[in-house]
């Protein structure tokens, strides 16, 4: 039994290995058409031959297109006993696909047969057929556009024939020209051509779905000839020929040797090597001359030149452009007008130092390149003196002249020559001046300068400008000449920078003289000062207060001060103001209420800016009197003079802001009561607690820190005193602990008491700060 079992297993394995091969030989696929139009239907049949009849009668054929199962098959047994399955694919949308006929065998599909399906389009009509006769290859080359892709193998053939007439009848056939795969051009060799006889030419396209032909082309090969470009050369100098004029180039060319017997016409084009200029075309040039002089170019400029040719008076195609020939035009003498200006300084009775300036103004578009300038004496002045004063590439020159010299000659030069001489006459100042010179800053980089034209009208103006004081007197200046004497101003835009003071000079020019120069200073853009003047209290009474300040010194980049405005506000928030002229440095506020607080600040202003001074807080006296001059108490940023403390008391700063409440701290001989009310700020100084009696004049003014209401009375041993004493309000420390400290001012001896040494105060986050008098 063991041997029989082994035999059965081997037999089963043999059947599995052999049967699939036998199945592949059973089936066969037939197609309705091997190639169809893309999108058309196609029908396929798969037939199982009779030698496979031993298969199960319920075997089922399955179709696959590539890897996809296809439904809709029809299966039947034919009369001869063979099994056939038919399927129709309604739309074949693939240009190439593999169709498989399969049979279920066990748990897998076994392929019986396969067929490749193809789909595409018939060839489109070739178009744009054109031909060129190439004398270099000695062949007629034709090219065309094949049209859209057919997705099928398509063959193109260039067909032609010779004809005596207009290509309606054939005389001799010409062998077909088949291009290489993927190419759409083909060349007919010279041996099949008659250069001066008509030819009929067309293109045929053919694939499995059809054939198409292009329209027929009838031509004579030499009528479509394309010549090779000529070779350009520079025409060298010759003793018999004068050198070229400035702005001209001379060149010659050689035609291609195989076309020497052909009459040709040529075109020349040129383009500057530098810049982005386009090509300029020169008309038809006869090839028989073989040389040409090109003029009208810019002097001293490099050019690229190219030429192309075609048949003269006969049909043909233009050749390609020749390789570029690079030539440079010669220079021409400068053609410029010189605007001149000068400054003179008498060195001694016989010698004058002259500083001459000039600006060349081109008179033509191609006025010639300038390499330098010459300044010389007038011919009649050259006897016994060096005629050449300057030879420079700059736009200015300094030289010395005899006092009687009134004229020099200025010329521009280059290798081609010199410009027309410009006489420079040193005019005397004898004309009328212009009036009302003024300036306006248009923007940070320009200044408008205007004036009233004098009478009679000048022939022009010279405008100079440069940095004003404190710049050195010899600093460079910019200048311009205006030739229109009727204008009343001009815009200066060269060498103007913001926040700079400029000195501007305008001089009128007349026919034989000049007017006196007018000067003005102006800022191109002004800036406000970093701080205003510091305001001080000089004296104070019941209904008045005298203020003073030190004007700020002029600063570079700022316009002059025009006025001051003083603002003061009382405790009821009523505001007052007055305007003072720029020369003021003190003012008396009158009409104030006795024993009242006032907040004062000063605003300084010019035409373009305004800035505020430090703030000052003061309190008028309750009784008649005044505070003597000298050192006064002032805080940063505020100060206050407040009654309420006896002279014998120490004056220690409290923690009040600008409109703060005074704090009076008693000396050992006095009795004081004070109440402390702490806010959320922990940086306020600590004071003792005790009974409080608030005076009528005290108001809660602190917004943070310790607020104090104080009333002080002398000890019984002291004589009665009034409440018109001087204390101060101390600015509250900042939240981050950097409190501001200052010093109380010692009282004048007229108060009848000398205060003891002040006690230091401690602010949160700072060390004990001594305090003493602060000078105004």
Automatic annotation (TrEMBL):
InterPro entries: FN3_dom (IPR003961), FN3_sf (IPR036116), Hematopoietin_rcpt_Gp130_CS (IPR003529), Ig-like_dom_sf (IPR036179), Ig-like_fold (IPR013783), IgC2-like_lig-bd (IPR010457), Type1_Cytokine_Rcpt_Type2 (IPR052672). The keyword Disulfide bond applies. Residues 1-25 form the signal peptide. Keywords: Cell adhesion, Disulfide bond, Glycoprotein, Immunoglobulin domain, Membrane, Receptor, Repeat, Signal, Transmembrane, Transmembrane helix. Gene3D superfamilies: Immunoglobulins. GO terms for molecular function: cytokine receptor activity. GO terms for biological process: cell adhesion. Residues 125-230, 236-333, 433-527, 529-620 form the Fibronectin type-III domain. It is a single-pass type I membrane protein. SMART domains: FN3. SUPFAM superfamilies: Fibronectin type III (SSF49265), Immunoglobulin (SSF48726). It comes from the Eukaryota. One of its GO terms (cellular component) is plasma membrane. Transmembrane segments: none annotated. Homodimer. The dimeric receptor binds two CSF3 molecules. Interacts with CEACAM1; down-regulates the CSF3R-STAT3 pathway through recruitment of PTPN6 that dephosphorylates CSF3R. Belongs to the type I cytokine receptor family. Type 2 subfamily. This is Granulocyte colony-stimulating factor receptor. It comes from Neophocaena asiaeorientalis asiaeorientalis.
């Amino acid at each position: 039994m063991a041997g029989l079992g082994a035999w059965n297993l081997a037999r089963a394995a043999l059947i599995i290995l052999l049967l699939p091969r036998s199945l592949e030989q059973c089936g066969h696929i037939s197609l309705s058409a091997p190639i169809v139009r893309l999108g058309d239907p196609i029908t396929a049949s798969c037939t199982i031959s009779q030698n496979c009849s031993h298969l199960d009668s319920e075997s089922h054929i399955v179709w696959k297109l590539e890897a996809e199962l296809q439904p809709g098959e029809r299966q039947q047994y034919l009369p001869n006993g063979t099994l056939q399955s038919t399927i129709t694919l309604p739309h074949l949308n693939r240009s190439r696909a593999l169709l498989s006929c399969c049979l279920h065998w066990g748990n897998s599909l076994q392929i019986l047969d396969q067929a490749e399906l193809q789909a595409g389009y018939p060839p489109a009509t070739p178009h744009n057929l054109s031909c060129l006769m190439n004398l270099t290859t000695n062949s007629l080359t034709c090219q065309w556009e094949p049209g859209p892709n057919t997705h099928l193998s398509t063959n193109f053939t260039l067909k032609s024939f010779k004809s005596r007439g207009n290509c309606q009848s054939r005389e001799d056939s010409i062998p077909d020209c088949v291009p290489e795969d993927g190419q759409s051009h083909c060349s007919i060799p010279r041996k099949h051509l008659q250069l001066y006889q008509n030819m009929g030419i067309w293109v045929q396209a053919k694939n499995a779905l059809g054939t198409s032909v292009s329209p027929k082309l009838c031509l004579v090969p030499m009528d479509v000839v394309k010549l090779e470009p000529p070779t350009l050369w520079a025409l060298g100098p010759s003793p018999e020929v004068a050198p070229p004029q400035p702005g001209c180039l001379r060149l010659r060319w050689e035609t291609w040797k195989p076309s020497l017997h052909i009459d040709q016409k040529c075109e020349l084009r040129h383009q500057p090597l530098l810049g982005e200029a386009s090509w300029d075309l020169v008309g038809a040039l006869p090839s028989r001359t073989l040389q040409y002089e090109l003029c009208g170019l810019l002097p001293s400029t490099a050019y690229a030149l190219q030429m192309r040719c075609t048949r003269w008076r006969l049909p043909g195609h233009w050749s390609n452009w020749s390789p570029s020939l690079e030539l440079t035009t010669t220079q021409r003498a400068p053609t410029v007008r010189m605007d001149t200006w000068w400054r003179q300084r008498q060195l001694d009775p016989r010698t004058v130092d002259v500083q001459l300036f000039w600006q060349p103004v081109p008179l033509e578009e191609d006025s010639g390149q300038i390499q330098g300038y010459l300044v010389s004496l007038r011919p009649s002045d050259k006897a016994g003196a060096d005629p050449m004063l300057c030879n420079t590439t700059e736009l200015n020159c300094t030289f010395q002249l005899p006092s009687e010299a009134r004229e020099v000659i200025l010329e521009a030069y280059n290798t081609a020559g010199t410009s027309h001489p410009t006489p420079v006459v040193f005019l005397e100042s004898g004309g009328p001046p212009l009036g009302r010179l003024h300036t306006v800053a248009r923007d940070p980089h320009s200044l408008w300068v205007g004036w009233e034209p004098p009478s009679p009208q000048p022939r022009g103006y010279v405008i100079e400008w440069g940095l004003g004081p404190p710049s050195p007197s010899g600093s460079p200046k910019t200048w311009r000449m205006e030739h229109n004497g009727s204008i009343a101003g001009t815009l200066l835009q060269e060498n103007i920078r913001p926040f700079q003071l400029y000195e501007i000079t305008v001089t009128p020019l007349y026919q034989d003289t000049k007017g006196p120069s007018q000067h003005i200073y102006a800022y191109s853009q002004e800036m406000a000062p970093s701080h205003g003047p510091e305001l001080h209290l000089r004296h104070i009474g019941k209904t008045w207060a005298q203020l003073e300040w030190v004007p700020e010194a002029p600063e570079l980049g700022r316009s002059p001060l025009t006025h001051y405005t003083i603002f003061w506000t009382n405790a009821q928030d009523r505001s007052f103001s007055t305007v003072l002229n720029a020369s003021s440095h003190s003012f008396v506020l009158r009409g104030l209420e006795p024993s009242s607080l006032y907040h004062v600040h000063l605003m300084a202003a010019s035409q373009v800016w305004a800035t505020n001074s430090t703030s000052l807080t003061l309190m008028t006296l309750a009784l008649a009197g005044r505070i003597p001059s000298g050192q006064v108490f002032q805080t940063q940023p505020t100060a206050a003079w407040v009654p309420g403390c006896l002279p014998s008391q120490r004056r220690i700063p409290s923690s009040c802001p600008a409109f703060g409440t005074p704090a009076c701290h008693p000396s050992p001989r006095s009795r004081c009561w004070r109440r402390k009310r702490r806010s959320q700020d922990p940086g306020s100084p600590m004071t003792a607690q005790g009974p409080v009696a608030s005076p009528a004049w005290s108001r809660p003014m602190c917004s943070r820190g310790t607020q104090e209401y104080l009333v002080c009375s002398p000890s019984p041993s002291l004589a009665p005193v009034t409440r018109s004493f001087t204390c101060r309000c101390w600015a509250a420390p900042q939240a981050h602990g950097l409190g501001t400290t200052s010093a109380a001012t010692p009282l004048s001896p007229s108060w009848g008491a000398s205060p003891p040494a002040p006690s230091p105060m401690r602010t949160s986050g700072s060390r004990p700060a001594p305090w003493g008098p602060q000078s105004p």
